[in-house]
Amino acid sequence: RAPGPCQQQPPVRAEAEESRSGVFADLTAEELSQVVRYLQGHLGVPLVDASRAKPSDNCIASLDVQLPAKAEVLRFLDEGGTRPVREALAVLYFGDQPEPNVTEYVVGPLPTPAYHRDVTVRKYGGKLPYHRRPVTGKEYEDINALIRRELGKAPFFLKACCESDGSDLAILTTAPRGFKSGDRVTWFVLFHNVPGTGYYLSPVGLEVLVDHEDLQVSHWQLRQVFYNGQYFASMKHLEDASVDNSLVRIKKPRAETVLGSMRPRSPPGSPGPLHYEPQGPRYSVRDNHVTFQGWSIAFGINPNTGPRLFDIRFRGERIVYELSLQEALALYGSNCPGGMSTRYMDGSFGIGRFSYELVRGIDCPYTATYVDRHYLAESNTPKTNQNSLCIFEHAAAVPLRRHFSDSQSLYYGGLRKNTLVIRSVSTLINYDYIWDFMFHSSGAVEVRVHATGYISSSFLHGQGTDYGNRVGPHTLGTMHLHHIHYKVDLDVDGQLNSLETQDMGYELVKDPWSMQNTMERLYLRRGRLEKEDEAAFPLNSPMPRYVSFTGPRPNEWGHPRSYRIQITSFAGEHLPVSSPMERSISWGRYQLAVTQRKEEEPTSTSIYNQNDPWTPTVAFADFINNETITNKDLVAWISVGFLHVPHAEDVPNTVTVGNGVGFFLRPYNYFNQDPSVDSPDGVYFSSEQEAGACRDNPLACLPHTASCTPNLPPFSYGGFLNL
């Protein structure tokens, strides 16, 4: 007979932990609205909705939760202290002031605000210069309008090169914007915009330099034009060169050579394997809290920097206080001006803000739990990215551990590798980053990022292949670096930790049983790092194979309870240290840096660094000042990344295979044995047992317990609604 529907068995929930995790929760849509109403009524200046605001207006740029100080949170979580006051952090652009500036306010208490305080000077040492503000959508709209007006001055050229009047060309920003503090001069790259394809692969060869520094939009100007290896003072000069035939024009590629379509080229096949849970999820999600087989995690998304986790506990013990993405850097090379000058610092664009709805069955398993996220940026109205974070249990199809014994006693013992996964995906212009946080039954935490989406490209001319590979008729896949930075506030067996290293060495010794021969004996080199300078490991330099945060107490075998940091990365040099903008991304100097935790050093970078990298608002290099790191509250700052030289197989999209990097936090003598021995998924049977007996082997029960029809929700997608 046909199997019946799978029966859900709700997992056990920890109500107290769920309630306490709210101290880390992102702002709700109602809280965001309350803060907007408060600011509109209490700042004493007119506030224009940021979606319509000109540079000369005042507006609310963004809102986020203001996290309480760690000491205050721990008194609440661990000592029964008072719940910290809930507050918001508001970023405002004041363009309609005698001295335009960016100001940050803390607003509280929520949900009914009654006060605000300016924290800008305390955080940054002074008012934030207005030119450092991120570019808003409205500013881009006004720039695009200027570019299209200028394109109208070259009708002959546009018809000849692009079969266009300019209105159907896509315009892509670069960043940063100039060469010195105060500049706001940006190269924009133009592409053929073929509906339903990734325009990033179809550059027309035309790039324009726009000066948009002035607060009056009418004063903005197009400063320079680039086409097919030549520079011109204006679109009129380009048009004149085109008319008198002194310009080498490249015709628009034929329709059949258009790159970037993701439409399937084969009819649908039979369905592939399906992930489902015969008795429902074995994890529990409530609000911003998830539990799974001993794990307890509070989760959220910062609209600027993306996913963040707090109070990560295993078996009731806190392992990590904060695990958060800090920045994603993409740095390009090209012989076109836009490509060669691009250093995208994605936090300034909005890593969390652009985490859109996930697609069931592709972005995450079909039956995963999907969570909505709310944010407020460049608008007075909160927006919801529905189903933009997913949580699921992943069966890795490889054992976590196993052994088949074929001598002495005969038996098999094994354990499936099942992990809890928290995932979001950010679409940042052309690239899509898949952010994974994985929790293993061995007590290990795995952090991983995959890059996919479209490559960015330049128009192929001259010696273009010195900067990448040709991937289309006139398309150069430009080489670039991906650098990702994370903050990991480990609390291993308490807040006070030290940093220990272990590595291998060989010593030449005589064999002790005869003293006649010599041998190279492998031995363990142990060390303890005392100062921050010792614990800052430059990129691509040797680093001890074992670097561990150690607690104050030993395990049963006399070793310090520890967690090891294990990094998997292929990062290239972020920038020469001599570069005038290097300090703005100086976190990229280090594959790992361990510093004392300080409330005044909450992040390794700033959203304001993108548009003024020459005078960075936050310079991570300043965090490393040789303070002691013995028995202190410590933070590990971890960089991962890779060099990407695009090739033909990156069309239409870069694949995730081979384009993933990350790190592990692994228990190292933290326990007395592998904690996964207590997993309910273990299997053991001997030669004296009937392997197919359900009472001895849970796998033998599957034909009975798992013979059911998955409860699949109907497929739906609303990811285009907020665009």
From TrEMBL:
Region feature Disordered, mapped onto this chain:
1-20
Post-translational note: Topaquinone (TPQ) is generated by copper-dependent autoxidation of a specific tyrosyl residue.
Enzyme Commission number = 1.4.3.-
| Keyword tRNA-binding tagged | no
Tell me the cofactors it needs. Cu cation
Which residues are in the Copper amine oxidase catalytic domain? 276-676
Q: Where is the composition biased (Polar residues)?
A: 1-10
- Keywords in alphabetical order: Copper, Metal-binding, Oxidoreductase, TPQ
GO MF: copper ion binding; primary methylamine oxidase activity; quinone binding
Q: Which domain of life is it from?
A: Eukaryota
The processes (GO biological process) annotated in the record are:
amine metabolic process
Where in the numbering of this chain does the Copper amine oxidase N2-terminal domain appear?
42-115
Question: Which residue range or ranges hold the Copper amine oxidase N3-terminal domain?
Answer: 133-229
Q: How is the cofactor bound?
A: Contains 1 topaquinone per subunit.
Question: Which SUPFAM superfamilies does this chain map to?
Answer: Amine oxidase catalytic domain, Amine oxidase N-terminal region
Annotated active site residues, numbered on this chain, are 346 (proton acceptor), 431 (schiff-base intermediate with substrate)
- Which PANTHER family did the record assign? COPPER AMINE OXIDASE, RETINA-SPECIFIC COPPER AMINE OXIDASE
Family from the record? Belongs to the copper/topaquinone oxidase family.
Name of the protein this chain belongs to = Amine oxidase
Q: What is the lineage of its organism?
A: Eukaryota, Metazoa, Chordata, Craniata, Vertebrata
